[in-house]
Protein backbone atom coordinates (compact mmCIF):
# COMPACT_ATOMS: atom_id res chain seq x y z
CA UNK A 1 0.00 0.00 0.00
CA UNK A 2 1.31 3.46 -0.85
CA UNK A 3 1.38 5.87 2.05
CA UNK A 4 -1.05 7.36 3.09
CA UNK A 5 -3.28 4.32 2.65
CA UNK A 6 -6.46 6.29 3.02
CA UNK A 7 -7.22 9.91 2.07
CA UNK A 8 -10.22 11.16 4.13
CA UNK A 9 -9.43 14.69 2.95
CA UNK A 10 -11.08 13.90 -0.42
CA UNK A 11 -14.43 14.15 1.40
CA UNK A 12 -13.55 17.69 2.51
CA UNK A 13 -12.27 18.99 -0.82
CA UNK A 14 -15.04 21.46 -1.73
CA UNK A 15 -18.02 23.00 0.02
CA UNK A 16 -20.28 20.95 -2.28
CA UNK A 17 -18.65 17.65 -1.29
CA UNK A 18 -18.67 18.58 2.40
CA UNK A 19 -22.34 19.42 2.23
CA UNK A 20 -23.14 16.17 0.42
CA UNK A 21 -21.50 14.04 3.10
CA UNK A 22 -22.48 16.01 6.21
CA UNK A 23 -23.76 13.62 8.88
CA UNK A 24 -25.80 16.15 10.81
CA UNK A 25 -27.57 19.31 9.82
CA UNK A 26 -29.37 21.84 11.95
CA UNK A 27 -32.82 22.98 10.88
CA UNK A 28 -34.95 25.88 12.15
CA UNK A 29 -37.69 23.54 13.34
CA UNK A 30 -35.24 21.84 15.69
CA UNK A 31 -34.84 25.08 17.65
CA UNK A 32 -37.10 26.17 20.49
CA UNK A 33 -37.10 29.76 21.77
CA UNK A 34 -37.41 30.41 25.52
CA UNK A 35 -39.24 33.69 26.27
CA UNK A 36 -39.87 35.66 29.46
CA UNK A 37 -43.05 37.60 30.22
CA UNK A 38 -43.21 39.91 33.21
CA UNK A 39 -46.29 41.20 34.92
CA UNK A 40 -46.74 44.97 35.08
CA UNK A 41 -44.06 45.90 32.52
CA UNK A 42 -44.86 48.74 30.13
CA UNK A 43 -41.89 48.27 27.80
CA UNK A 44 -39.74 45.21 27.11
CA UNK A 45 -36.87 45.25 29.64
CA UNK A 46 -33.38 44.09 28.59
CA UNK A 47 -31.77 41.34 30.70
CA UNK A 48 -28.34 42.79 31.43
CA UNK A 49 -26.51 39.46 31.69
CA UNK A 50 -28.05 38.21 28.42
CA UNK A 51 -27.40 40.78 25.67
CA UNK A 52 -30.23 40.64 23.13
CA UNK A 53 -32.72 38.94 25.51
CA UNK A 54 -35.60 40.87 27.10
CA UNK A 55 -38.36 40.39 29.60
CA UNK A 56 -41.51 40.88 27.54
CA UNK A 57 -44.73 42.71 28.24
CA UNK A 58 -47.80 40.60 27.53
CA UNK A 59 -48.22 42.30 24.17
CA UNK A 60 -44.56 42.31 23.09
CA UNK A 61 -44.55 38.59 23.93
CA UNK A 62 -47.25 37.85 21.37
CA UNK A 63 -45.27 39.80 18.74
CA UNK A 64 -42.09 37.91 19.62
CA UNK A 65 -43.87 34.57 19.26
CA UNK A 66 -45.20 35.67 15.85
CA UNK A 67 -41.67 36.57 14.79
CA UNK A 68 -40.37 33.19 15.94
CA UNK A 69 -43.10 31.37 14.01
CA UNK A 70 -42.25 33.38 10.89
CA UNK A 71 -38.57 32.48 11.31
CA UNK A 72 -39.62 28.81 11.30
CA UNK A 73 -38.62 27.78 14.82
CA UNK A 74 -40.13 24.57 16.18
CA UNK A 75 -41.68 25.99 19.34
CA UNK A 76 -41.60 28.53 22.14
CA UNK A 77 -41.10 27.92 25.87
CA UNK A 78 -42.71 30.54 28.11
CA UNK A 79 -41.52 31.61 31.56
CA UNK A 80 -43.57 34.00 33.71
CA UNK A 81 -42.27 36.64 36.12
CA UNK A 82 -45.00 37.67 38.58
CA UNK A 83 -45.37 40.99 40.41
CA UNK A 84 -45.98 39.22 43.71
CA UNK A 85 -44.67 35.99 45.13
CA UNK A 86 -45.69 33.84 48.09
CA UNK A 87 -44.63 30.65 49.87
CA UNK A 88 -46.65 28.29 47.65
CA UNK A 89 -46.32 30.12 44.32
CA UNK A 90 -50.03 30.96 44.02
CA UNK A 91 -49.52 32.88 40.80
CA UNK A 92 -48.62 29.64 39.01
CA UNK A 93 -52.07 28.14 39.59
CA UNK A 94 -54.07 31.38 39.21
CA UNK A 95 -55.84 31.22 35.82
CA UNK A 96 -55.16 34.96 35.48
CA UNK A 97 -51.54 34.68 36.69
CA UNK A 98 -48.93 36.15 34.36
CA UNK A 99 -47.88 32.85 32.75
CA UNK A 100 -51.37 31.41 32.35
CA UNK A 101 -52.69 34.68 30.90
CA UNK A 102 -49.75 34.76 28.47
CA UNK A 103 -50.42 31.16 27.40
CA UNK A 104 -54.01 32.14 26.61
CA UNK A 105 -53.07 35.10 24.45
CA UNK A 106 -50.21 33.32 22.70
CA UNK A 107 -52.26 30.23 21.83
CA UNK A 108 -55.15 32.44 20.69
CA UNK A 109 -52.70 34.23 18.35
CA UNK A 110 -50.78 31.28 16.89
CA UNK A 111 -53.09 28.29 17.39
CA UNK A 112 -51.39 25.09 16.29
CA UNK A 113 -48.90 26.81 13.99
CA UNK A 114 -46.17 26.23 16.55
CA UNK A 115 -45.76 24.24 19.76
CA UNK A 116 -46.51 26.45 22.74
CA UNK A 117 -44.69 25.22 25.83
CA UNK A 118 -44.99 26.30 29.46
CA UNK A 119 -42.36 26.05 32.17
CA UNK A 120 -43.96 24.02 34.94
CA UNK A 121 -42.04 24.88 38.08
CA UNK A 122 -42.57 26.99 41.17
CA UNK A 123 -39.28 28.89 41.39
CA UNK A 124 -40.49 31.96 39.49
CA UNK A 125 -43.55 32.16 41.73
CA UNK A 126 -42.26 31.47 45.25
CA UNK A 127 -40.95 34.18 47.57
CA UNK A 128 -38.07 31.90 48.65
CA UNK A 129 -37.16 31.07 45.04
CA UNK A 130 -37.10 27.28 45.42
CA UNK A 131 -38.66 25.01 42.81
CA UNK A 132 -41.00 23.53 45.42
CA UNK A 133 -42.81 24.36 48.62
CA UNK A 134 -40.92 24.16 51.93
CA UNK A 135 -41.66 22.11 55.04
CA UNK A 136 -41.58 23.54 58.57
CA UNK A 137 -37.79 23.07 58.69
CA UNK A 138 -37.26 24.94 55.43
CA UNK A 139 -36.49 21.89 53.30
CA UNK A 140 -38.07 21.41 49.87
CA UNK A 141 -41.07 19.13 50.48
CA UNK A 142 -41.19 16.74 47.54
CA UNK A 143 -44.71 15.34 47.86
CA UNK A 144 -46.39 18.59 48.85
CA UNK A 145 -44.76 20.10 45.76
CA UNK A 146 -46.25 17.39 43.54
CA UNK A 147 -49.74 18.60 44.48
CA UNK A 148 -48.81 22.13 43.45
CA UNK A 149 -47.36 20.87 40.15
CA UNK A 150 -50.54 18.89 39.42
CA UNK A 151 -52.65 22.02 39.97
CA UNK A 152 -50.29 24.08 37.84
CA UNK A 153 -50.49 21.52 35.05
CA UNK A 154 -54.28 21.77 34.94
CA UNK A 155 -54.11 25.58 34.88
CA UNK A 156 -51.55 25.57 32.06
CA UNK A 157 -53.44 22.96 30.04
CA UNK A 158 -56.60 24.99 30.50
CA UNK A 159 -54.76 28.09 29.29
CA UNK A 160 -53.94 26.27 26.04
CA UNK A 161 -50.35 25.07 26.51
CA UNK A 162 -49.55 22.23 24.12
CA UNK A 163 -46.58 20.97 26.11
CA UNK A 164 -45.62 21.31 29.77
CA UNK A 165 -41.94 21.50 30.68
CA UNK A 166 -41.41 19.88 34.08
CA UNK A 167 -38.23 21.53 35.27
CA UNK A 168 -38.42 21.15 39.06
CA UNK A 169 -36.56 17.84 39.54
CA UNK A 170 -38.98 16.51 42.17
CA UNK A 171 -39.23 12.71 42.41
CA UNK A 172 -42.44 11.46 40.80
CA UNK A 173 -43.31 14.77 39.15
CA UNK A 174 -44.01 13.32 35.72
CA UNK A 175 -46.30 10.64 37.12
CA UNK A 176 -48.15 13.11 39.34
CA UNK A 177 -48.77 15.52 36.49
CA UNK A 178 -49.65 12.77 33.99
CA UNK A 179 -52.20 11.32 36.42
CA UNK A 180 -53.77 14.72 37.10
CA UNK A 181 -54.08 15.39 33.37
CA UNK A 182 -55.60 11.96 32.67
CA UNK A 183 -58.09 12.39 35.50
CA UNK A 184 -59.11 15.73 34.00
CA UNK A 185 -59.58 14.21 30.54
CA UNK A 186 -56.47 15.94 29.17
CA UNK A 187 -54.53 13.03 27.77
CA UNK A 188 -53.68 15.28 24.80
CA UNK A 189 -51.10 17.39 26.63
CA UNK A 190 -47.43 16.63 25.93
CA UNK A 191 -44.99 16.33 28.83
CA UNK A 192 -41.34 17.26 28.50
CA UNK A 193 -39.32 15.97 31.45
CA UNK A 194 -36.22 17.93 32.34
CA UNK A 195 -35.04 14.46 33.25
CA UNK A 196 -31.38 15.16 33.76
CA UNK A 197 -31.13 18.69 35.06
CA UNK A 198 -27.88 19.51 36.80
CA UNK A 199 -27.24 21.96 39.64
CA UNK A 200 -25.27 24.24 37.34
CA UNK A 201 -23.43 27.54 37.60
CA UNK A 202 -24.56 28.19 34.03
CA UNK A 203 -28.08 29.19 35.15
CA UNK A 204 -26.78 32.47 36.61
CA UNK A 205 -28.04 34.85 33.92
CA UNK A 206 -31.48 33.14 33.84
CA UNK A 207 -31.93 34.03 37.47
CA UNK A 208 -31.58 37.70 36.45
CA UNK A 209 -34.11 37.13 33.67
CA UNK A 210 -36.72 35.87 36.14
CA UNK A 211 -35.71 38.24 38.99
CA UNK A 212 -35.00 35.10 41.04
CA UNK A 213 -35.45 35.31 44.80
CA UNK A 214 -33.30 32.22 45.49
CA UNK A 215 -30.86 32.23 48.40
CA UNK A 216 -28.62 29.19 48.57
CA UNK A 217 -28.70 26.47 45.92
CA UNK A 218 -30.75 23.63 44.44
CA UNK A 219 -28.36 20.78 45.19
CA UNK A 220 -30.91 18.70 47.10
CA UNK A 221 -33.02 18.29 43.96
CA UNK A 222 -30.96 19.07 40.86
CA UNK A 223 -28.29 16.57 39.86
CA UNK A 224 -24.66 16.57 40.94
CA UNK A 225 -22.40 17.49 37.97
CA UNK A 226 -20.17 14.59 39.03
CA UNK A 227 -22.75 11.99 37.97
CA UNK A 228 -23.60 10.59 34.54
CA UNK A 229 -25.05 7.14 35.27
CA UNK A 230 -27.58 8.79 37.58
CA UNK A 231 -28.95 10.67 34.56
CA UNK A 232 -29.91 7.35 32.98
CA UNK A 233 -31.87 6.45 36.09
CA UNK A 234 -33.70 9.79 36.08
CA UNK A 235 -34.54 9.36 32.41
CA UNK A 236 -35.77 5.79 32.88
CA UNK A 237 -38.10 6.87 35.68
CA UNK A 238 -39.48 9.81 33.70
CA UNK A 239 -40.20 7.70 30.63
CA UNK A 240 -41.93 5.09 32.81
CA UNK A 241 -44.04 7.83 34.42
CA UNK A 242 -45.29 9.07 31.06
CA UNK A 243 -42.85 11.63 29.66
CA UNK A 244 -43.22 12.17 25.92
CA UNK A 245 -39.83 13.84 25.60
CA UNK A 246 -36.82 13.89 27.92
CA UNK A 247 -34.25 16.63 28.19
CA UNK A 248 -30.68 17.13 29.34
CA UNK A 249 -29.74 20.51 30.76
CA UNK A 250 -27.37 22.38 30.47
CA UNK A 251 -26.19 21.31 27.02
CA UNK A 252 -22.57 21.98 26.10
CA UNK A 253 -20.96 20.98 29.43
CA UNK A 254 -23.06 17.76 29.41
CA UNK A 255 -22.66 16.40 25.87
CA UNK A 256 -21.49 13.06 27.28
CA UNK A 257 -24.72 12.73 29.26
CA UNK A 258 -26.76 13.77 26.24
CA UNK A 259 -25.21 11.15 24.04
CA UNK A 260 -25.61 8.43 26.67
CA UNK A 261 -29.28 9.33 27.14
CA UNK A 262 -29.92 9.38 23.39
CA UNK A 263 -28.46 5.89 23.11
CA UNK A 264 -30.67 4.61 25.93
CA UNK A 265 -34.25 5.72 25.23
CA UNK A 266 -36.84 5.44 22.47
CA UNK A 267 -38.50 8.82 23.06
CA UNK A 268 -37.25 12.14 21.64
CA UNK A 269 -34.31 13.65 23.51
CA UNK A 270 -33.81 17.40 23.66
CA UNK A 271 -31.24 19.67 25.27
CA UNK A 272 -31.41 23.13 26.82
CA UNK A 273 -28.60 25.48 25.88
CA UNK A 274 -28.88 27.58 29.02
CA UNK A 275 -28.40 31.23 29.81
CA UNK A 276 -24.76 30.92 30.90
CA UNK A 277 -23.83 29.12 27.67
CA UNK A 278 -25.43 31.98 25.77
CA UNK A 279 -23.81 34.68 27.90
CA UNK A 280 -20.36 33.13 27.55
CA UNK A 281 -20.38 33.26 23.75
CA UNK A 282 -21.93 36.74 23.72
CA UNK A 283 -19.28 38.04 26.12
CA UNK A 284 -16.40 36.50 24.17
CA UNK A 285 -17.80 37.90 20.92
CA UNK A 286 -18.32 41.37 22.43
CA UNK A 287 -14.69 41.30 23.54
CA UNK A 288 -13.64 40.49 19.97
CA UNK A 289 -12.32 37.08 20.98
CA UNK A 290 -14.55 34.85 18.89
CA UNK A 291 -16.52 34.84 15.62
CA UNK A 292 -19.99 35.16 17.09
CA UNK A 293 -22.15 33.65 14.32
CA UNK A 294 -19.80 30.75 13.70
CA UNK A 295 -19.62 30.00 17.43
CA UNK A 296 -23.40 30.15 17.80
CA UNK A 297 -23.99 27.69 14.97
CA UNK A 298 -21.14 25.42 16.07
CA UNK A 299 -22.45 25.09 19.62
CA UNK A 300 -25.93 24.27 18.33
CA UNK A 301 -24.63 21.75 15.81
CA UNK A 302 -22.54 20.10 18.52
CA UNK A 303 -25.56 19.68 20.77
CA UNK A 304 -27.57 18.23 17.89
CA UNK A 305 -24.70 15.90 16.89
CA UNK A 306 -24.40 14.64 20.47
CA UNK A 307 -28.00 13.44 20.32
CA UNK A 308 -30.48 16.27 20.79
CA UNK A 309 -33.38 16.13 18.36
CA UNK A 310 -34.28 19.69 19.35
CA UNK A 311 -32.45 22.40 21.26
CA UNK A 312 -33.88 25.13 23.46
CA UNK A 313 -31.75 28.19 22.74
CA UNK A 314 -31.99 31.95 23.18
CA UNK A 315 -30.51 32.21 19.67
CA UNK A 316 -33.39 30.25 18.11
CA UNK A 317 -34.73 33.05 15.89
CA UNK A 318 -31.36 34.36 14.77
CA UNK A 319 -30.02 30.85 14.14
CA UNK A 320 -33.18 29.88 12.24
CA UNK A 321 -32.72 32.90 9.97
CA UNK A 322 -29.04 32.11 9.42
CA UNK A 323 -29.88 28.53 8.55
CA UNK A 324 -32.59 29.59 6.12
CA UNK A 325 -30.21 32.04 4.48
CA UNK A 326 -27.76 29.14 4.07
C1 LIG B 1 -36.34 26.45 36.75
C2 LIG B 1 -35.53 26.71 35.54
C3 LIG B 1 -34.22 27.22 35.50
C4 LIG B 1 -33.89 27.31 34.15
C5 LIG B 1 -34.98 26.88 33.42
N1 LIG B 1 -35.98 26.48 34.30
C6 LIG B 1 -33.35 27.75 36.54
C7 LIG B 1 -32.88 26.97 37.66
O1 LIG B 1 -33.04 25.76 37.74
O2 LIG B 1 -32.33 27.63 38.55
C8 LIG B 1 -32.57 27.80 33.65
C9 LIG B 1 -32.52 28.18 32.21
C10 LIG B 1 -31.32 28.94 31.82
O3 LIG B 1 -30.36 29.12 32.58
O4 LIG B 1 -31.32 29.39 30.67
N2 LIG B 1 -37.70 26.74 36.52
Short description:
The protein is an alpha/beta fold. Helices cover 39% and strands 15% of the residues. The protein has a single domain, classed as Aldolase class I (TIM Barrel, Alpha-Beta Barrel).
Structure explained in plain terms:
With 326 residues, this protein is of the alpha/beta class. It has one domain (25-324): Aldolase class I (TIM Barrel), CATH 3.20.20.70. Helices cover 39% and strands 15% of the residues. It is built from 11 helices and 10 strands. The chain has an 8-stranded parallel β-barrel, surrounded by 8 helices. Helix 2 crosses helix 3 (98-110). It is globular. Bound molecules: ligand PBG. Residues 119, 121, 123, 131, 167, 203, 206, 218, 274-275 line the site of ligand PBG.
Secondary structure layout:
Blueprint (H helix, E strand, L loop, with lengths): L14 H7 L9 E8 L6 E2 L7 E3 L1 H14 L3 E7 L16 H13 L4 E6 L21 H17 L4 E4 L6 H11 L6 E8 L6 H6 L19 H13 L3 E5 L5 H10 L4 E4 L2 H12 L5 H14 L4 E3 L3 H10 L1
Ligand PBG binds next to loops.
Order of strands in the sheet with most strands: 1-4-5-6-7-8-9-10
What is the distance, rounded to the nearest whole angstrom, between the alpha carbons of the first and last residues?
Answer: 40 Å
Order of helices and strands: HEEEHEHEHEHEHHEHEHHEH
Structural domain tally: 1
Please name the CATH topology: TIM Barrel
Question: Strand count, sense and closure of the main sheet?
Answer: 8 strands, parallel, barrel
The quaternary organization reads as: single chain
Overall pLDDT score: 97
The ligands found in this model are: ligand PBG
